[in-house]
Automatic annotation (TrEMBL):
Catalytic activity field: adenosine 5'-phosphosulfate + ATP = 3'-phosphoadenylyl sulfate + ADP + H(+); sulfate + ATP + H(+) = adenosine 5'-phosphosulfate + diphosphate
Pfam families xref list: APS_kinase, ATP-sulfurylase, PUA_2
Binding site for ATP: 398-405
Pathway participation: Sulfur metabolism; hydrogen sulfide biosynthesis; sulfite from sulfate: step 2/3
UniProt keyword Kinase present: yes
The APS kinase domain, residue ranges: 390-541
Family statement: Belongs to the APS kinase family.
The species this protein was found in: Limimaricola variabilis
Biological role stated in the UniProt entry: Catalyzes the synthesis of activated sulfate.
Protein name, UniProt field: Adenylyl-sulfate kinase
Segments forming domain ATP-sulfurylase PUA-like: 9-159
PANTHER family: SULFATE ADENYLYLTRANSFERASE
């Protein structure tokens, strides 16, 4: 299969029209795009999502969810939707143009709203991602981050989102097509990745290029990947570090600002379509492509080769050839990588999983040269120092009067005695005095309060400090959101201070329970407002019959066990 490298349609208007539109759009209702929507919009505008002309209409959305095709029959497995809040949706009428802006308020596009509807998110989760299970990152996004109303309609592109990093390595589909034309490349195989390249990947990409007799495009995703992945800055430095291991006349590195959904088979198909739009003729699909990890029962969401199966069924229609690969493993006796099904009998197979790699980085252990390149390991160690040097957050949750603050204080003193990292205590009362003085105790205000705490804690964690938080934090979904914020940068240790409501009320240190019973304080947690008991916190401490010192010591032991403080 040789490529057709003619330019593909974009949604941008001319430079002159864009200048005019920018001024005219000043009067339009504005939607501030989320980071994921910015990624989607960029690929809509530059033709990466060709043939889509905008965010999906309701009919196209239904059709894509149910059949993986738009209404007019075009293969499109992933719903590209503009989710907004109910409040914003009320300000928009059908037929109205709205301005789509980035997070700094810069206008990127306008959209004529042709459709507005409340989606059935559970159906979307079941059909697109295979299960309505929030352990799936995209399902979690759908239920806990995405707005409840979808807007659909054609998009008029004004300008690309601004990127300040790695500018020279970012290419639109038409820029890549032009590059391939210039180089005279006819057959080009794409390698999609969200991980640093280790030796197995290099071997796999070499083999793929050889098998397909094609040039190689390393095409990593730098938009949004799976929560917990190595950040794209580090990864791109890693890719650059190994680029000279490839022949420069046949290999190119280009960054793709895609927001992945980790949708396995459907996602693989989507990736193939995106690569076709970028002028590729071949596409590598390995084991567990775009896999989301385990479901809430601890099982895989998809079979390891489901993605290959689905792409195989549609490759002809898309016009891209799949290069499928089995899992690559290192064979010690041969000092070489082999696909797992081609390993010579009786030989010793070595493999380091992603989890094992993270453990070795976290504990400062050796990472052998057969596994990765020293240049890559050096970059990874710069970003992820061993655990006992990283920041982390201890997040206490429990009823008012459960003893959170007292234990948190004791823990702070113990950690300060050990030294090494700055410690900050974000106690419920202190936060409400300083960060959240205008907030009350409605669900909305509590969520805001906890998200603020989470934001500060994640910044502290990122910068190598220890954040100790001690709010009530009654809602599981909000605690999870904070966990996600923090885990981008370091460990999150949820400690449930499991004092019963009866005991808290009996102690009633601040006299608040009495007032709550008398109805003088409304929405009081445990009395007239709910508390979701943490299902699987890192630690649960019982305060009845255990003194404060001992409770704080249990946290210290947990931290030691997790490698966060040197033993
Ligand atoms: S939340 O839900 O996490 O935002 O609450 P938090 O900020 O931790 O609450 C801090 C203290 O506010 C006092 N207080 C109440 N608690 C619960 N419900 C109601 N309605 C309420 N009104 C005031 C309470 O003493 C909390 O203090 P702690 O430190 O938990 O005892």
């Amino acid at each position: 299969m040789a490529s057709n490298l003619a330019p593909i349609p974009e949604l941008y208007v001319s430079y002159e029209s864009a200048q005019k539109l920018k001024v005219e759009a000043g009067t339009l209702v504005s939607h501030d795009l989320t980071p994921r929507q910015i990624c989607d919009l960029e690929l809509l505008m530059n033709g990466g999502f060709n043939p889509l002309k905008g965010f999906l209409s309701e009919a196209d959305y239904d059709s894509v969810v149910e059949t993986m095709r738009t209404q007019d029959g075009a293969l499109w497995p992933m719903p590209i939707t503009l989710d907004v809040s109910e409040k914003f949706a009320e300000t928009v009428e059908l037929g109205q143009d709205i301005a789509l802006r980035d997070q700094e308020g810069v206008i990127l596009a306008t959209m004529t709203v042709t459709d507005k509807w409340v989606p059935n998110k559970s159906r979307e989760a079941e059909k697109v991602f295979g299960a309505d299970d929030s352990a799936h990152p995209a399902v979690n996004y759908l239920h806990n981050h995405a707005g409840n109303v979808y807007l659909g309609g054609p998009v008029t592109g004004i300008q690309q989102p601004v990127h300040y990093d790695f500018k020279a390595r970012r290419d639109t589909p038409n820029e890549l097509r032009a590059y391939f034309r210039k180089m005279g490349w006819q057959r080009i195989v794409a390698f999609q990745t969200r991980n640093p390249l280790h030796r197995a990947h290099q071997e796999l990409t070499f083999r793929a290029a050889r098998e397909a007799q094609a040039n190689l495009l390393i095409h990593p995703v730098v938009g949004m990947t799976k929560p917990g992945d190595v950040d794209h800055f580090t990864r791109v430095r890693c890719y650059e570090a190994v680029l000279d291991k490839y022949p420069s006349s046949t290999t190119h590195l280009s960054l793709l600002n895609l927001a992945m959904r980790m949708g396995g088979p459907r996602e693989a198909l989507w990736h193939a379509l995106i690569r076709k739009n970028h002028g590729l003729t071949h596409f590598i699909v390995g084991r567990d492509h775009a896999g989301p990890g385990k479901n809430s029962q601890g099982e895989d969401f998809y079979g390891p080769y489901d993605a290959q199966e689905l792409v195989r069924q549609h490759q002809e229609e898309i016009g891209i050839e799949m290069v499928d690969f089995k899992h690559m493993v290192y064979v010690q006796e041969k000092a070489q990588y082999y696909p797992i099904d081609e390993v010579p009998e009786g030989s010793t197979v070595l493999n380091i999983s992603g989890t094992e790699l993270r453990r070795r980085l976290a504990e400062g252990l050796e990472i052998p040269e057969w596994f990765s390149f020293p240049e890559v390991v050096r970059e990874l160690r710069r970003t992820s120092p061993e655990r006992s040097k990283q920041g982390f957050t201890v997040f206490f949750t429990g009823f008012s009067g459960s003893g959170k603050s007292t234990i948190a204080n004791a823990l702070m003193v113990k950690l300060m005695e050990m030294g090494g990292r700055p410690v900050t205590l974000l106690d419920g009362d202190i936060v409400r005095k300083n960060l959240s003085s205008e907030l009350g105790f409605s669900k909305e205000h509590r969520d805001l309060n906890i998200r603020r705490i989470g934001y500060v804690a994640s910044e502290i964690t990122k910068n190598g400090g220890i954040a100790i938080c001690a709010p009530i934090a009654p809602y599981a979904a909000t605690r999870r959101a904070v966990r996600e914020d923090v885990e981008n940068f370091g460990a999150f240790i949820e400690v449930h201070v499991a004092t019963s409501i009866e005991e808290c009320e009996r102690r009633d240190r601040k006299g608040l329970y009495k007032l709550a019973r008398e109805g003088k304080i409304k929405e009081f947690t445990g009395i007239s407002d709910p508390y979701d008991v943490p299902e699987s916190p890192e630690l649960r401490v019982e305060t009845e019959g255990t003194d404060v010192d001992n409770c704080a010591h249990q946290v210290i032991l947990k931290l030691e066990q997790m490698g966060l403080i040197a033993g």
